[in-house]
Amino acid sequence: MSHLPPPGGYGVPHPAERGTPPPRPGDLVDRLVARLVDWLVVAVVAGLVVRPLVRALLLGPDSDAVASWVAGATVTVSLAVVALGYQLFFETTTGRTPGKALMGLQVVGQGGARVTPTQSLRRNAFHLVTLLGLVPFAGPALASLAEVVVLAAIAWSIASDPGLRQGVHDRFARQTYVMKVR
Predict the structure, then answer these.
(1) What is the DSSP secondary structure assignment for residue 60, as one 8-state letter?
(2) Contacts of 168 by beta carbon, 8 Å cutoff, 6+ apart
(3) Which positions ≥6 away from 135 have C-beta within 8 Å?
(4) Can you give the pLDDT at residue 69?
(5) Which of 33, 75, 89, 179 lies 20 to 30 A from 159 at CA?
(6) Residue 178 three-state SS
(7) Cβ neighbours, 10 Å, residue 171
(8) Can you give the C-alpha Rg of the chain in angstroms?
């Protein structure tokens, strides 16, 4: 005996006819807006908590250039850890970061399974390009350029896959998908 609802036309409307469309791949614009919202959340946390805390702990009134570099490096590493941790927590517990929830998106593994911690870390490993900011002198510019290149590559790969809209980071994560669930 099947537990699937009968097809439409047999007295019971098909789920799509009831106003609940089946999940479909999330489109590029929704995914970009979700990523922007999540970036803003992480930036606010970093700006209000991480940066002032690190500066208060590592910099004093007589700080030299080395102390300033160490403080900056600590902030850079902290930001990468916060960004990865944010994605890891939300993707593995609910499948939805606040940005994805706002846009009606959810990250899933094969067959709709919950994303594993390994998949989430692989999927979001691109956040580590911010660590290029540790390179003396040219680091911040190098990190910014790398972030733009990586995000452009991800956007291009999503746009180039009209069927599943999988980005290169989704394939690297061993088959994760971002689905539009509302």
Answers:
(1) -
(2) 153, 154, 157
(3) 142, 143
(4) 80
(5) 89
(6) strand
(7) 15
(8) 21
DSSP, collapsed to helix, strand or coil, labels residue 169 as helix
Is the pLDDT at 138 greater than 80, yes or no?
yes
Residue 144 has pLDDT above 90, yes or no: yes
Q: Is the pLDDT of residue 2 over 50?
A: no
Checking if the pLDDT of 3 tops 80, the result is no
* CA distances in angstroms from 69 to 49, 60, 145, listed in the order given: 19, 13, 20
pTM above 0.70, yes or no: yes
Tokens found for residue 72:
């900056």
Alpha-carbon span 66 to 166, nearest angstrom? 43
Is there a contact between 166 and 174 (Cβ–Cβ < 8 Å)?
A: no
Q: How far is CA 44 from CA 60, 82, 129, in A?
A: 24, 11, 20
Residues 6+ apart with CB under 8 A from 59: 67, 68, 71
